[in-house]
Design brief:
Strand order of the largest sheet: 11-6-5-4-3-2-1-12-13-14
Distance between the termini: 11 Å
Strand content: 5-15%
Bound molecules: iron/sulfur cluster
Structural class: alpha/beta
Oligomer: single chain
Shape: globular
Number of helices: 15
Order of helices and strands: HHEHEHEHEHHEHEEHEEEHEHHEEEHHH
Length: 345
C-alpha cells in the first residue's frame, strides 16, 4: 500500500482507469489479473560505465536485444490492458528505434515512463511524443556524477536536456552511495533550484560479499543468482550521519523529496549495516520485468530467473501461471539476501 502511495504521489499522470482498477485489486486481494507496470529493459547496451551499476559493475555480458518488429508486436498484444510501461536499460536511447517504439506505445494509449542518463536523448523529438515522465539518473553534483559515471560532461549534458523539457514531466532520480553521501544536500538544493519539481532518492540496492557467497543459486528449478551490486555495508557512524541528513532533507523539501523505500529508523540502520531486514516483496505481485532479450523475469535483481519469453509466451498467461505463483510463495518464505535491501520491495 505504502509503495503505491509513493508511486502515485511521484507520478500522478500515470493514473488511468485500468491502473486504478488493477491497483485496487492488488490492495484488496494481493493479486492482479495483469501486471500493473511492465518494466521493459529495452537494451542491455549503455554508453556509461557507472561504478555501482549491476550491469557493468558486476561485469555482466550484454545480452542480445529484441528487434523492432518483436517489440512492436509485444506492445500491441498488451495494449488492451493499458499497463504502465517503464522503459529502462542499459540506456534506452542507445536504440536507434527508440522514438518509433515510444510513438507506438503512446498511440496505443499506455502511460509511459523512461529512465535515462540523458546523454543521447533528443529533446526536440521527445517533446513531440507525450512521454508522461522522463526520469534522469543523476548521482551528485557535477564532479561527483561525472566521476561515478566515468563521463567527463555527463552532468552538464543531462542538465541541459532537463532544462529543455517541460518541468512537470521531469523527475530526477539518485541513489545513495558512499561516493555521493557527503554531497547529498548540495546536490538536492542545486537540482531543485534549477526548477526540478521532484527528486527520488533510492536507498542503495546491495548485497554484502558474505551474503553473496552464501546465497542460494537455485531452488526448485528457479535460478536465484543475485544480479545486484556486491559491496560491504556502511559503518555505524556513516549510517548515523546519513540518517540525520535524510531526515533533514525530508523535512526541508517535503512534497519534492521522495525516499524509496521510505524506511523507519530501525529499518534504515538494518539496511545500511548489512543486517537482516523484515522486508517482504510486494513488487512481484503487481509488476514484472522484461529483459532486453525478451525474457520474462520477476525483477532486475534476479535476471537469470527466466519465467518465459515474450517472443513465444503470452505475458498474461505467465503472470497467472502456477509456475509464477509458486515462485512468489517461495520468495515469501525465503527472505533471500537479495531481497533484504531491494528498492522495489
Ligand atoms: S547509465 Fe544506468 S545502465 Fe548505464 S552504466 Fe550507468 S547505471 Fe548502468
Ligand atoms: S524483493 Fe526480491 S524478488 Fe522482490 S523485487 Fe526485490 S529482489 Fe526481486
Amino acid at each position: 500500500m505504502r509503495d503505491f502511495y509513493l508511486y502515485f504521489k511521484l507520478y500522478p499522470r500515470l493514473l488511468n482507469t485500468s491502473v486504478i482498477k488493477n491497483g485496487l485489486s492488488y490492495i484488496w486481494a494481493r493479486k492482479t489479473t495483469f501486471p500493473l507496470t511492465i518494466n521493459f529493459l529495452i537494451t542491455s547496451k549503455c554508453n556509461f560505465k557507472c561504478k555501482m551499476c549491476s550491469f557493468y559493475g558486476s561485469g555482466q555480458p550484454e545480452t542480445p536485444d529484441l528487434s523492432t518488429p518483436e517489440i512492436i508486436k509485444f506492445i500491441k498484444t498488451i495494449s488492451s490492458y493499458k499497463p504502465i510501461i517503464h522503459i529502462g536499460g542499459g540506456e534506452p536511447f542507445m536504440r536507434k528505434d527508440i522514438y518509433q517504439i515510444i510513438t507506438e506505445i503512446k498511440k496505443l494509449g499506455m502511460p509511459l515512463l523512461i529512465t535515462t542518463n540523458g546523454y543521447l536523448l533528443d529533446t526536440a523529438k521527445i517533446k513531440k511524443l507525450d512521454v508522461d515522465y522522463i526520469i534522469f539518473s543523476l548521482y551528485g553534483p557535477p564532479q561527483v556524477h561525472n566521476e561515478i559515471t566515468g563521463i567527463t560532461d555527463a552532468y552538464e549534458i543531462a542538465l541541459k536536456k532537463i532544462k529543455a523539457l517541460p518541468k512537470e514531466r521531469v523527475i530526477v532520480s539518485t541513489t545513495v552511495m558512499l561516493e555521493n553521501v557527503d554531497y547529498l544536500e548540495e546536490f538536492i538544493k542545486t537540482i531543485l533550484e534549477h526548477g526540478i519539481r521532484k527528486i527520488k532518492v533510492e536507498n542503495l540496492n546491495y548485497i554484502t560479499p558474505q551474503e553473496y557467497e552464501n546465497h542460494p543459486s537455485e531452488i526448485n528449478g528457479y535460478i536465484l543468482k543475485p544480479t545486484t551490486l556486491i559491496t560491504p555495508s556502511f559503518s555505524h557512524s556513516q549510517v548515523q550521519k546519513l540518517w540525520k541528513r535524510i531526515g533533514k532533507l525530508k523535512t526541508r523539501y517535503r512534497g519534492k523529496f521522495f525516499l524509496k523505500p521510505d524506511l523507519d529508523k530501525k529499518g534504515f540502520f538494518n539496511w545500511y549495516l548489512g543486517r537482516e531486514t523484515n522486508i517482504s516483496c510486494n513488487f512481484i505481485r503487481h509488476s514484472i520485468f522484461i529483459d532486453s532479450d525478451g525474457a520474462i523475469i520477476p525483477c532486475q535483481f534476479l535476471k537469470d530467473c527466466k519465467l518465459g519469453n515474450i517472443t513465444r509466451d503470452d505475458v498474461k498467461y505467465v503472470w497467472r501461471s502456477q509456475n509464477f505463483e509458486k515462485f512468489r510463495e517461495l520468495i515469501d518464505r525465503l527472505n533471500l539476501p537479495v531481497c533484504r535491501r531491494c528498492c522495489k520491495s
